[in-house]
Structures are given as C-alpha cells and as structure tokens.
Amino acid sequence: MRILLVEDNHELAAWLGKALKQANYAVDIAHDGEDAGHLLKVAEYAVVILDLSLPKIDGMTLLKRLRQAGNKVPVVILTANASLDGRVAGLDGGADDYLAKPFEIAELEARIRALVRRGHDRAAPQVTIGDLLFDGGTRQFTLAGETLVLTPREHAVLEHLVLKVGTTVAKATLSESVFGFDDAADASAIEIYVHRVRKKLEGSSAQIATLRGLGYMLRHAG
Fold first, then answer.
1. Rounded alpha-carbon distances, angstroms, from residue 21 to 58, 92, 183, 205
2. How far apart are CA 214 and CA 50, in angstroms?
3. What confidence tens digit (pLDDT) does each residue in 204-213 have?
4. For the modification 4-aspartylphosphate, which residues carry it (predicted)?
C-alpha cells in the first residue's frame, strides 16, 4: 500500500517515512507542493499525508487543485494549527481527516487504516483463503492460527494480493504498490518478493499463481 507524505520539515519527514515503512507501507516523500503535485499526476496512492505550510505551493492550494481535478484520494492534513477554524477550513477544502502536531504515530496509522476502509466503502475486511487469514483492522496475517512473520515488503505484496483475491494483479501494479520512487528496485525485484512470500505459504492452501504475461493471482490451492 503506497502513501504520499508531503512535509517540508526534512527531519520530521524522514522520521515519519521510516515509521510508516516499518508499518508495511511504501512511502514517497515530497518536501514542497510543486513536487507533490507532480507525484500525484504520475502515481496512484492509497492515502496522502499533507502538511499545510509548504513552499512553492501551499497545502490548501494543492488540496483544492487535487479535488478540482477529480482526484478523490483520501487526504490527512498535518498541521500545527489545531484551532477549530483551521480544522473546518481544511475539511471544507477537501481533506478527509485532520491531525494536529504533535501526534503519536499510532494515531496516524489508525487514521490511515480508517481512511483506506472508508475508501473501499466497507468495514475492516477479514479475508480467508484456506488457512490464511488477513485482518484488515490490524493488517495482520495468520497462517493455520499462527502469526505469519513477514518483512515490510513481503507484507505489502501479500496485502495487495489478498485484497484482490481471485483476480489477476499485473506485475507493474503490484510493484507500484510495494516500491516508492526512491527505492532502488529493478523490474525483477517484485519477482523476488513474490518468491519469498510463496516460500512462507508453502504447505498451506493459499497459493500465489503466476499467469504468464498477465501477472499474479492469490487463490485457494484446492
């Protein structure tokens, strides 16, 4: 799952980016509104985390342009302005949520999960494929009743596939959900992570099938 973080404070952006990657998200970081606007034109994101006090193009202007262009990506505003007027202006401007600085990373992660669920217009999904269970509320996997231990990128691969269970996911689409622009990943990198996830699913009834020329599909092996 890919997130765009727009924050002009480089130290805060680096800290948030690291924390979100540890929480199994792929993260792109922009330090000004102009760069963020470009990224939003060339990539698809599950959520945008947006600071308002940005150079070149401020956050509110960027948000209004985003909505005027018909982009409905969920947006969480981060700002030091915790006033009622500030919150109202942000929400009226097209934001989906508002978080005042300072904040706890656990709260930000919870709000991201809530926005993703809202975007799918459903409650937190529980997806079962044989003995593999995905809890959308916690974003945790269990296999045969035991916690499935995955690296962040393995988790990103399996999460994307499980939310598209039974349908074909193109290799490029899967790669875009796992790697950010700053990640050094060649065209074959996604194949490595798919292989690693397959190894961890060995012996289970959940199977990642390769559809030549099309992509991958997670399905019940039976």
1. 25, 30, 11, 29
2. 35
3. 999 999 998 8
4. 51
Domain 126-220 fold: Arc Repressor Mutant, subunit A (1.10.10)
Q: How far is CA 142 from the centre of its chain?
A: 20
- Given a cut of 80, is residue 192 above it in pLDDT? yes
Does 126-220 match 2-119 at the fold level? no
Taking the CA of residue 47 as centre, how many other CA atoms within 13 Å lie in the half-sphere pointing to its CB? Answer: 26
Checking if the pLDDT of 190 tops 60, the result is: yes
The long-range contacts involving 91-94, CB below 8 angstroms and separated by at least 24 positions, are: 93/60, 93/63, 93/64, 93/67, 94/63, 94/64, 94/66, 94/67
Choose among 140, 148, 144: nearest CA to 124. 140
Q: What is the pTM (predicted TM-score) of this model?
A: 0.74
Which residues make beta-bridge pairs with 135? 126, 140
* Strand, helix or coil for residue 70: coil
Helix (H) or strand (E) holding 209: strand 206-211
State the Cα–Cα distance between residues 114 and 108, nearest whole angstrom: 10
- pLDDT average, residue stretch 187-204: 91
